[in-house]
Amino acid sequence: MFARSRGTSLALCGLLAASLAFADTALPPMPLMQQYVFGVLRKGPKWTADKSPALDSLQAGHMAHLGRMWKEGWLVAAGPVTARNGWRGLLIFRADSASQVRALSEQDPAVRAGRLAVDLWPWFAPQGIGQGYTARTARLGPGSDSMVTRWVTLLRTSPKPSQLKGAALDSMRRGHLAHILGLLASGHARAAGPLTGAGDIEGLTVFVTDSLDAWTRANADPAARSGDLTIELFPWWCAYGVLPGEE
C-alpha cells in the first residue's frame, strides 16, 4: 500500500510474500485473499441535516435497499461513519469489479434522490468478510445484530514522500508488508488491503482494538515512519460478524 509513484502496492507486496514464503520464515503468513468492492456513501448534492417525514421515508427506503443487497448476496458488510467529513457510511460488496455493483448501489432511494452519493473502488482483502454475520443471522434469527465500533485507518500517499532508494527502499517496503501481515496474523486487524482508483488513498486496515491502540499500531508501519504514507483514523459502526474470524 505504497504511493503508486514509487511503484508499489500491497497487491504487489502480496506477490512478493508468496515468492519469498520459503526464503524468509520470519515473514508473517499471507492470508487467503479475494477481490471485493469497497463503497463509500457520502453526502450528495441534496444532503440536508433537517428532519422531515419525507426524509424519514427516504431513510427507511435506504435501509430496505441495503437489506435487499445483502439478501441477494452482493453486500457483505455495511455501517455508518460520522467522524470523517462528508462520508456517511461504508459498504463492502462481494464482486470482481465496481461495474458489477454500480447500477445496483445507485438504485438506493437516497442516492437516486441526491441525498447520498456513492463511490466504489476495487479492494483486495482477506477472504471471509461477511461470512460470520451470515452464519450468526442464520443461527440466531433476524434482529440479532450486535453493533460494534471498529477503527478504520486509511493509508494515504504522503505529499512529501521519503527519498529512500535502493536497498533502503526495499527494506522499507518489506517492513511495510511484514507490518500489515503481522497485524492480520495477530488479530489486531481483521481486514487490510489495497484500494484501486481511490486517489491518494492507497489502502485501508480495519482494527478490532480501541482507537489509541489502532492509531499506535498503524503509525508503527515503516512506511508511515518513513513519511511515505500518512494515516487517517475514524470509527465505523458495523454488525459483529462481518469481519473474518467473527461469528
Structure description:
This protein is α+β, with helices and mostly antiparallel strands and 247 residues long. It has 2 domains: 4-30 and 146-239, Dimeric alpha+beta barrel (Alpha-Beta Plaits); 35-126, 2-Layer Sandwich (Alpha-Beta Plaits), CATH 3.30.70.1060. It is 35% helix and 28% strand. The strands form 2 sheets. Strands 2-3-1-4 form a 4-stranded antiparallel sheet. A 4-stranded antiparallel sheet has the order 6-7-5-8. A hairpin with a 6-residue loop joins strand 2 (75-80) and strand 3. Mean pLDDT is 91; it is low at 14-19.
Summarize the structure.
Belongs to the YciI family. The protein is of the alpha+beta class.
- Strand fraction: 25-35%
The total of beta strands comes to 8
Could you give a short account of the major beta sheet?
4 strands, antiparallel
Structural class: alpha+beta
Strands side by side in the biggest sheet: 2-3-1-4
Helix tally equals 8
CATH architecture heading of the largest domain? 2-Layer Sandwich
Protein name: YCII-related domain-containing protein
Signal peptide: 1-23
Keywords: Signal
Domain YCII-related: 53-122
What order do the helices and strands come in, and which of them pair?
Elements: H1 10-20, E1 33-43, H2 53-71, E2 75-80, E3 87-93, H3 98-105, H4 109-112, E4 116-126, H5 131-140, E5 147-157, H6 166-186, E6 189-194, E7 201-207, H7 211-219, H8 222-225, E8 229-239
Antiparallel strand pairs: 1-3, 1-4, 2-3, 5-7, 5-8, 6-7
Name the descriptors.
single chain, 247 residues, alpha+beta, Alpha-Beta Plaits, four-stranded antiparallel sheet, 8 helices, Dimeric_a/b-barrel, YCII
